[in-house]
Amino acid sequence: MNHKVIGATRNIAIVGPYLSGKTALLESLLSVTGAITRKGNAKDGNTIGDSSPEARDRKMSTEVNAASTEYENVRFTFLDCPGSIEFAQETLNALIGVDAAIVVCEPVTDRTLTLAPLFKFLDDWEIPHLVFVNKIDRACTDETTCGSNFTNIINALKSISSRPIVPHQYPIGHNEKIIGFIDLVTEQAYHYHPGAPADPVPLPEHLKAQENEARQQMLEELANFDDNLLAELLEEINPDAEEITRDLKMELGADLIVPVFIGIAEQDFGVRPLLSALLREAPAPETTAQRRGVIQSDEKVTVQVLKTYYTPQGGKLSLVRIWQGTLADGATLNGIRVNGLYRLNGWQTQSLTHAKAGEIVALGRLEGVNTGDTLTVDRTKSLPKAEILSPVYALAIAPEKRNDEVKMTSALAKILEEDPSLVWQQHGDTHEIILWGQGEIHLKVSLERLRRKYNLPMTTHLPQVPYKETIRKPASAIHGRYKHQSGGHGQFGDVYLDIQPQPRGEGFNFCDRIVGGVVPKQYIPGVEIGVREYLDRGPLGFPVVDVAVTLTNGSYHSVDSSEQAFKQAARLAMQEGMAKCESVLLEPIAKVEIHAPKEFTSKVLQLVSGRRGQILGYESKSNWKGWDTVTAYVPLAEMQDSIVELRSQTMGVGFFHWEFDRLQEVPEPLAKRVLLTTGNGKN
Ligand SMILES: Nc1nc2c(ncn2[C@@H]2O[C@H](COP(=O)(O)OP(=O)(O)OP(=O)(O)O)[C@@H](O)[C@H]2O)c(=O)[nH]1
């Protein structure tokens, strides 16, 4: 078996907005390097990138797919990441294991904003990245606008990148279409050639000025990090290609610049130059490892999990980046034996006996190991992992077949392992099982996985709002007597209760002020249980909170009294007393922080007010250039689909964090409507 040494491997993530052509680019990369003989496409659902049935059905990537190929004797492993914001967690988890990322985008200037959160993550993690402007044919619809549109795209990218944007190529348009490009490093022009590498052609005379300007831009950006190049530029010396490539490699490797390439992935145009640039300029795995503080060592093995899969056959595969050492199949990591070592190509696996530092491979059956975990022989290291996104959308779920409930718990655990941005909980009040995630499609895809992989069809509905109720007025000396005679000895309990409202958030409080043993000590717990049971469902039909109940008086029977009878007496007293206490409906209020580019702040404020929110203020989001954070209180009842509206108002990039803050009275007309629609308020 041919094993590459460190330096002969490149791990590249393919990332970028939804449907920008990432899977098409991967297909093209695999095709031009001979890894596949026939290209698939998203329409026909036969790509390596979108290998799962959920992805194929939707013609979109729903999880990370790995594929390897060789080019110029270097092994390239590509991670094709989903573009949809709802599957962003996949992308973040994968990105931490690569040496560089290709950001694929479309040549539409007013959509570059959708790249902002991705650029932010890449910058925060210092992940070297370059841009591939795909579908460049769409920007070059006539010869004269081809160059100016390209310049506009470069400027749009500059407006969202904190790193300098450096054009690496310049387009050549002819008769309403793009026919080639000029490499700004070598100043060599090329014409695209279907099914073959681009043909070198003389630099078109009419583009010399534009080419020179774009090249100058590139050189000036590079010179900001290289004094020698700066001196050459000042002396008007033309630097040679070798020197420029050296700078590009150093500056891309250190995540100081963002080079920009162009192409048409579906026609393989611009794909070979992209590969050549990756070969020459992308950092080697050891450089990445060093930047993460991992020192190379042959003995120590350190790997990190980038993605967890359960195969259609039910086996667990953990896609890992080997940061350090040589890993053999059968080795023990974190006390768990590696059971199978594979190279992945979509769902196809190729068995390996060992793999070296810098490779991305899949390991079999690492039970108990999660995405993001660091594994070593002696558990001595823990590398940073990507943050887990806050859940923003929920559905209540239930198995279609009642007796599937036990099966559901273990299946949910598995799909959560595959996708750490899912969370599930059983709600304490409503008893619903709530599945939380990043949006409607995200949850639908997860539920399809449950059905397909685990034969678990589920029903869904929007979760109930966990309303509660409380009281406005006190009631005192409420009498409850339970007396029952049914053969044998009877049942007797007799209590007097005071019921009082408590300040909001105080909860429930029970005390007894019994003197002289009129209710014997052993029956008092029964009274409290009776009160508590009643409060599970108050007069409006919801759990009662912020109430104090005091047992003030009562009587007993030496034979017939029991804890059970006092429980019943307490319930009767509560039923009678609470009817006099003016019950009010309470709703949960969330404290929400909404993040969006500043140009959308007024829309965010409108969204909050339109959802009965109370705006607390807004300010610049720290470390996010051009973004605001709006802080507000919003009723939970209004939050259910708020992410859908927020995304539609903010080109898909707005997001929020929320947490439960408090309960608050529901305003009167609305409370009536809630009680009508929930069918409550009748007991
Ligand atoms: N005109 C044109 N269409 C393209 C090109 N590349 C991809 N497409 C089309 O764009 C659509 C999306 O392509 P994909 O490769 O599936 O996009 P993606 O970025 O992988 O999608 P997600 O991963 O779901 O975000 C498909 O219909 C492709 O056929 C291109 O270079 N030119």
Task: Please give the share of residues in helix.
Answer: 25-40%
Judged by helices, strands and strand pairing, the structural class is alpha+beta
Query: What ligands does this structure carry?
Result: guanosine-5'-triphosphate
Which residues sit in consecutive blocks of at least 5 with pLDDT less than 50? 1-7
Gross geometry: elongated
Strand line-up in the sheet with most strands: 2-3-1-4-5-11-6
Quote the beta fraction. Answer: 25-35%
Mean pLDDT reading? 92
Radius of gyration: 32 Å
Number of strands: 34
Please give the largest β-sheet. Answer: 7 strands, mixed
The total of helices stands at 17
In whole angstroms, the N-to-C terminal distance is: 75 Å
Structure, described:
With 683 residues, the protein is α+β, with helices and mostly antiparallel strands. Strand 29, helix 13 and strand 30 form a beta-alpha-beta unit. It is elongated and about 110 Å long. It is built from 17 helices and 34 strands. Helix 6 (208-223) packs across helix 7 (227-234), helix 11 packs across helix 12 and helix 13 crosses helix 14. Bound molecules: guanosine-5'-triphosphate (GTP). Residues 7-286 form the Tr-type G domain.
